[in-house]
């Protein structure tokens, strides 16, 4: 099970995740209590082992801005979090080739009409699967006021049925309200390739809790 510990704001927390066995660490460049700058992340990535993926999370759809951040911050992956934008994904693929691990976030609205939320996700997932320009799709919970780090779950049972019918060969990463206590259930229900967590491993927004990070990774890896 591939594990990403997201929303790191300092080297100590990123190293904590890496040392605990995470496959990737994430850095939020979007407006958020966990937001970081390219300069901050450049210092952090220099202190991390080469093997771990260093993924920037962007809600921007500006190709030039994202490409510049990749180079300055020493990123090896990009998570597009500002809505489905396949032309942007194609631009990044053309620019960086296979060296950049490219994730497209698809959101499941948890405080709106559930039928519309399901249909929107289904249509977007099909579009990404047809285009074949990203390495993975990340499914995250979205509220009317926040598109990530919400600490909320989406409808796993419903999403499972959609994924079975529309995923194709896409790698699926799940996020949204995960923690050490529920990640096993989420994995068994959704059968993803990977999991992603932010608030579920924090002592406070932007600050990791060592015990929570280690417990989350152990729980995810122990699930069959």
Describe what this molecule looks like in 3D:
The chain has 224 residues and is α/β, with parallel strands linked by helices. The protein has one domain (2-222): Alpha-Beta Barrel (TIM Barrel), CATH 3.20.20. The chain has 8 helices and 10 strands. The strands form 2 sheets. The chain has an 8-stranded parallel barrel, surrounded by 6 helices. A two-stranded antiparallel ribbon has the order 9-10. Helix 1 links the parallel strand 1 and strand 2. Mean pLDDT is 91; it is low at 144-149.
Topology:
Blueprint: E1 2-5, H1 11-19, E2 24-28, H2 38-46, E3 53-58, H3 63-73, E4 77-80, H4 86-96, E5 101-109, H5 114-131, E6 136-142, H6 156-166, E7 171-174, H7 183-190, E8 194-197, E9 202-204, E10 207-208, H8 210-222
Parallel strand pairs: 1-2, 1-8, 2-3, 3-4, 4-5, 5-6, 6-7, 7-8
Antiparallel strand pairs: 9-10
Helix pairs in contact: 2-3, 5-6
Domains (count): 1
User: What is the highest CATH level, the class?
Assistant: Alpha Beta
Beta strands, count:
10
How helical, in percent, are the residues?
40-55%
Relevant CATH superfamily? Aldolase class I
Q: Identify low-pLDDT runs.
A: 144-149
Strand content: 15-25%
CATH structural fold name: TIM Barrel
Strand order of the largest sheet: 1-2-3-4-5-6-7-8
State the CATH architecture: Alpha-Beta Barrel
What's the story with the biggest beta sheet?
Answer: 8 strands, parallel, barrel
> What's the SSE pattern?
EHEHEHEHEHEHEHEEEH
Which whole number gives the mean pLDDT?
A: 91
The end-to-end span amounts to 9 Å
Number of helices: 8
C-alpha Rg (nearest Å): 16 Å
Q: In one word, what is the shape?
A: globular
């Amino acid at each position: 099970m591939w594990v990403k510990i997201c929303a790191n704001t300092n080297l100590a927390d990123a190293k904590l995740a890496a040392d605990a066995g995470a496959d990737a660490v994430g850095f939020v460049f979007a407006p958020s209590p966990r937001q970081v700058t390219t300069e901050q992340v450049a210092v952090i990535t220099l202190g991390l082992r080469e093997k771990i993926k260093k993924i920037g999370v962007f809600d921007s759809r500006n190709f030039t801005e994202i490409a510049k951040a990749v180079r300055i911050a020493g990123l090896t992956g990009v998570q597009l979090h500002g809505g489905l934008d396949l032309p942007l994904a194609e631009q990044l693929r053309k620019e960086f080739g296979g060296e950049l691990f490219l994730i497209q976030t698809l959101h499941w609205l948890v405080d709106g009409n559930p039928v519309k939320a399901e249909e929107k996700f289904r249509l977007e997932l099909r579009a990404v699967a047809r285009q074949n320009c990203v390495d993975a799709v990340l499914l995250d919970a979205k509220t009317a006021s926040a598109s990530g780090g919400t600490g909320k779950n989406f409808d796993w049972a419903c999403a499972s049925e959609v994924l079975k019918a529309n995923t194709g060969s896409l790698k699926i990463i799940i996020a949204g309200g995960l923690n050490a206590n529920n990640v096993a259930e989420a994995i068994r229900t959704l059968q993803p390739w990977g999991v992603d967590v932010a608030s579920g491993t924090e002592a406070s927004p932007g600050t990791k809790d060592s015990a929570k990070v280690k417990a989350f990774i152990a729980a995810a890896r122990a699930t069959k």
